[in-house]
Amino acid sequence: MPLKHSTETALIVVLAIAIATVGIVLSLLPDLPQGLYYWLALFIATGLYPLVLTPVFRENRADYEFRLLHWVPAAMTALWAILQVVGLFIDGTSDLMGWFRFLWCLPLVGIGFLLLIIFCNAVLRRRQLRISLLILAFILFAGFATVASSKRWNERLQAYLTHEDVHVPLDDASVSSGEVIAMASSSSSRASQVVGRSSSSVRTSSSARTSSSSKMSSSSRSSSSSKQGGAIGKNVKDLPKPKPPVKADPAPKLPKSGPETAAGVIAILGLYCGVLQVRVIKREDMVG
Fold it and tell me: How far apart are CA 131 and CA 185, in angstroms?
């Protein structure tokens, strides 16, 4: 059975969204060979999209023109690669690539939408609704592309993909972010140098002051110490000389009274021994 009107309308809307998305991605892709991997991923995705829908088209006996329209995103991706390869060998293709990427690939997206409008006009089923949706979608796409170009969103996204500097307006001049960072770093380095010089001058002045103050204090200390020493010397000279010590006379010896003490003691012991001997003799006579 043929495609239902609602299903066919939904597929047309999805195809329009796919064409717009591919246009946005192609405008952001970096040039070859740097953007080769991104292009391969996009080309595989745009090639799988109609292949996945092929069974649905066969089962519902969709128009061949409608089937071919689903290869428009893949054709846009292939055209981008052809222009890139030609640009590697032939100079002067930069203008053509600029036209290709203008406002999210607006010329190619416009051609895709125009083909869809022609198909919807040829098919009488819900013609007015489909054409109105396509025109509204294209106007919204063109408006967002213009805003993105004025806000420089594409350049920022490309810089994110390629890790390059972004050129941003600064005082009505195109200056890259790397230059801005360099200027900021140079100004900061100059400021640090000025601060370092001022701090070094302050340190030298403070050290000179401290050295001069230390010299003054040392000189004042030496002068005061010399003055104090002179005053002490004068005071020492004015002191009276000490008198020699007076020898004391020895104490007079006491006069002797009676015999010597040692002789007296010996005599007493001798008398005592004599008395004891006499008593012992008497006791022996009495016992005998």
Answer: 56
Contact 150, 132 (CB under 8 A): no
Separation CA 158–CA 24 (nearest Å): 11
The amino acid that residue 104 corresponds to is W
Q: How would DSSP label each residue in 12-66?
A: HHHHHHHHHHHHHHHHHPPPTTTTHHHHHHHHHHHHHHHHHHHHHHHHTT--HHH
State the Cα–Cα distance between residues 49 and 43, nearest whole angstrom. 10
Residue 243 corresponds to which amino acid?
Answer: K
Tokens of 282: 């008497």
- Residue 176 host element (H or E): strand 174-176
Residue whose tokens read 């043929």: 2
The CA-based angle 234-235-241, given to 5 degrees, is: 105
Report the alpha-carbon distance of residue 65 to residue 113 in Å, rounded.
Answer: 14
Residue with tokens 């998305």, as numbered in its chain: 21
| CB-CB neighbours of 8 under 10 Å | 20
Q: Which mean pLDDT values do the consecutive 10-residue runs of the chain (288 residues) have?
A: 79 95 91 88 95 91 92 95 87 77 90 95 85 94 91 78 55 45 53 54 55 55 53 49 53 50 67 73 70
Whole-number Å distance between alpha carbons of 33 and 162: 12
pTM: 0.57
| Beta strand pairing call for 167-169 and 174-176 | antiparallel
